[in-house]
Amino acid sequence: MLSCGSLTCTHWSEVNMKAREKTLVLADLHLGTTNTHDIDTLVPWIKVLLTQSLPTRLVLAGDIFETILPMEHGQPINNVGVTTVVRAIVATWQELFSSWNESSVQEVTFLSGEHDAEIATKDVRDVLRRSLPSKRVTTEERWYDEGSDSLIVHGHQFDYNRIFWSGSERVSCVDGLTVAINALLSQSPGIETRVRDAAEAGIFSYWYAFGELPRFINAVERIFFAKASTYEAECARMLLGGDLDRWLGMQSDLLTRACGQVVKLAAHHPPTLLRLYDAFYRLLDLHVKWRMKKVLAGHSYQDEPETLKISGGVRNLVFGHFHEPRMWHDRGRSGYGISCPRLSVAGIENECLRTFRDLSYVLLDGPDVSLHHKRILRLTPLEQFK
C-alpha cells in the first residue's frame, strides 16, 4: 500500500498506468508572476525538449507553481486563494502553456509539491484544463509508469518538509520557513527594490543551491546589506510559536523528532539556527535517502499519521524537491532526482556571486529511464550590484 497525503492506493491497478509510453518529467519550475526574466530561458528549453523527445505524456512533478513565496509575485498573495494565484501564473506564462498545448503531448499530469500542495483541488484543476483545452489534464499526488516500473512523486513526502493534514488544517513548517526567506529579502523597501531589480536583470535569484542556505544568506548580506538576524528571528518565531510542535506531533520517526527538539532549543538563541544548518541538513538528507531505498524495496517507514509502503516495491523512483540533479542505484533499484531549472544562488566566490541553472529532466521511454542534465554557470562581479 502506498499512502501519500490524503490519497491511498492498495493496488497499482487503481493508479492511472500507461505501459511503454514516452513520458517527459520536469519538476520545480516554481512559476510565479514576476519571474518573467526566466521565460526567455525556460520556454525555449522546454520547447526543444518537446520537439526532440516527442513525448505523449508530460508529468510535472511538483512545485510547478509558487503559491507561498510573496517575492515571486507583484501583488500580495496572502489570503487571495490558490486558485486565483494559479490563474494569474498561467496568464503570465501563457507562452509556456501554449507550447504544451501545441506539442505531441496528449496528457499532462500535475503532481502536488509543498509549494503548491492544493493543486489537486477541483477549482485549480478546472483552471489548468481551461488553459490546456486540447489535452487531458489530471492533478495527482503521485503517478506510476508501468512500462518502466517507476513511481513519480515530488519528493517532499520523504523529507522534513513533508506536509500533513489534520482534517482541513495544513500542518507544515515549510510555509513559515519560506516566509522567513521573504522577510530577509524584503526587510526594508529599499532592500526589496534592489533584490527585485537584480532578479529581474537575471543576476540574482530567490532560490539557492542544494543545502546552501547559509551561503545564500551571506550573499544577501554582502550584496544588499540585509541583516541575517531578520531571517533568524522569523524562523525562531515560527519554531517557538507552535508550528513545529504541531508538525512534530504528527510524526513517529525518532530521528526527525529528536532533530526537531534540538532545533526548538536552538531557536531560543536564533543565531544558532544557521550554525546548525549544515550538520542537520546533511544528516536529514542521508535519512531521506534511507527512506527512499526502503520504499523502493517494498518496505515501509512509519511517519504518523501515514505509512509509506509499496507492496513488492518499484524499480525506479523519480523525484524533484531537492533542487539537485542526482542519480543512485541500490540492489537493482534506482533513484533519479530532477533539479530546479530556475536561476539558483551558490554563494560568493572571489568577489563574484556564483549562480547557475540546472536544466534537467527525466525521460521514460518504455522500460528505459534516463536522467539528462546540463548546468549553466555564471559569475557576476559584486560591483555590478552597486
Automatic annotation (TrEMBL):
SUPFAM superfamilies: Metallo-dependent phosphatases (SSF56300). GO terms for biological process: lipid A biosynthetic process. This is Uncharacterized protein. PANTHER family: BLL8164 PROTEIN, UDP-2,3-DIACYLGLUCOSAMINE HYDROLASE-RELATED. Signal peptide: none annotated. It comes from the Bacteria. Gene3D superfamilies: 3.60.21.10. GO terms for cellular component: membrane. GO terms for molecular function: UDP-2,3-diacylglucosamine hydrolase activity. InterPro entries: LpxH-like, Metallo-depent_PP-like.
